[in-house]
Amino acid sequence: MKLPIPEFLKRYWHFLTRPLALALWIILAFGFFAGIIFWGGFNTMMEMSNTEAFCTSCHEMRDTVFQEMKTTIHFSNRSGVRASCPDCHVPHEWTHKIVRKVQASKELWGKITGKIDTPRKFEEHRLQMAMREWDRMKKNDSRECRNCHNFDSMDFSLQSKRAAHMHSTALASGELTCIDCHKGIAHKLPDMSGVPGW
Amino acid sequence: MNRRTVSLLWLPVSAIILYLASITVLQGADNQPPPEEVESLRGAAPVGEVPAAPDLKKYPKEQVPMDLQFVGQPPLIPHSIRGYQITANSNKCLTCHAWENAASTGAPRIGISHFRDRDGKVLADVSPSRYFCTQCHVPQANAKPLVPNTYQPVESLKKP
After folding, report:
1. ipTM of this model?
2. Average pLDDT over residues B117-127
3. Which of A48-62, A118-132, B67-81, B82-96 has the least mean pLDDT?
4. Closest Cα in chain A to B90
């Protein structure tokens, strides 16, 4: 049986096979390759900006939060598993990642305009920046922590009494999430007066 | 006795006096306690040599609280405090030990004494003189006493 070809497709094909349409072909091909290059480049950019080396390439980060992180358990520990900046600060899934990246471009803007270009200014803005991270982690149920720390794999009997007590109650019931109890896990804390629980 | 014999006699006499004097002086020197062996914290190793470092102390995650030795002793910390920040900005200890948090965290509350300032006045919150907890409370570790100590707790605090 012969499939009926819609009239507009026939006309379109006819149009493309005219000699004059060569230019159109070239444009199409150009668009195709440009697309590949753009997409690849975009992803490469994303990957590149998703490394600790990138995060700490500006002194605002290198001299402050990075130095502070070096003394914590997520930088060096007995098992040798390292958490890098994006592990905690950039979501894994694509859509969340893009959203976070667009937000992060604001931080780059802060750099360009010199909003936080000295440790003193950094300290002044720390509470504001920390609050944004706490809010984000509270809203997504500490998704980045859970990428490494799986609640279902926690063996309470191997944890310290204090940890097991908290994890088996407030955490298990979903009342609180990791960041509610583990603030300041990687960096120095801002002035905590007014923050609930502190 | 003519003058000559007198001056001749002086010779042995002065020799004897000199001898006795030097004996007493030297005897005194002998009676001094021997100079103390001074040892710096790095030990007896000569400067220029690098002595082996002592083992790092172990701070276990949690331990059974140690017995108190006297009334009013600041208890040792029976848990790990790695990474706990105590700064002008924040005090991690108080997130568990403050009175308003103790019930939900199951931690013992800080003693009443922690609300008293140096003049004995009771304040509404932790006294600034008690803010830096690790000034008085240290985690339990496998550390030997730095100096010998023969202190004994009173009968009532002794373990049966």
Report:
1. 0.73
2. 93
3. A48-62
4. A192
> For chain A, which residues make up each domain, given as ranges?
59-68+87-190
Residue B2 confidence (pLDDT) above 70 = no
HSE on the CB side for B10, CA within 13 Å?
A: 6
- CB contact under 8 Å between B94 and A198, yes or no, is yes
Binding positions of A for heme are 55, 58, 61, 85, 88-89, 107, 145, 148-149, 178, 181-182, 187
What proportion of chain B, given as a percentage, has pLDDT over 90?
Answer: 41
CB contact under 8 A, A73 and B89: no
Is A184 within 8 Å of B92 (Cβ atoms)?
yes
What confidence tier does A106 reach under pLDDT thresholds 50, 70, 90?
Answer: confident
**A&B contacts, CB < 8 Å:** 41
Q: What's the rounded Cα separation, in Å, for the pair A108 and B62?
A: 43
Enumerate the residues of chain A whose CB falls inside 8 A of the CB of residue B80: 160
How far is Cα A196 from Cα A186, in angstroms, rounded to an integer?
19
The amino acid at residue B68 is L
User: Residue B93's closest CA among B80, B83, B84?
Assistant: B84
Q: Do B89 and A192 touch (CB under 8 A)?
A: yes
Mutation test of the interface with chain B: which of A127, A159, A162, A165, choosing the one with the most B Cβ atoms within 10 A?
Answer: A162
| Displacement of CA B133 from its chain's centroid (Å) | 19
**With contacts defined as CB-CB under 8 Å, which chain A residues touch B106?**
162, 165
pLDDT value of position A114: 72
pTM of this structure: 0.83
Which of the four pLDDT bands, split at 50, 70 and 90, describes residue A169?
very high
Residue A58 CB contacts under 8 Å (≥ 6 apart), including other chains: A111
Mutation for testing the A interface, residue in B95, B97, B131, B140 having most A CBs under 10 Å: B95
Reply yes or no on domain B60-143 having CATH 2.10.109.10: no
Q: How confident is the model at residue A154 (pLDDT cuts 50, 70, 90)?
A: very high
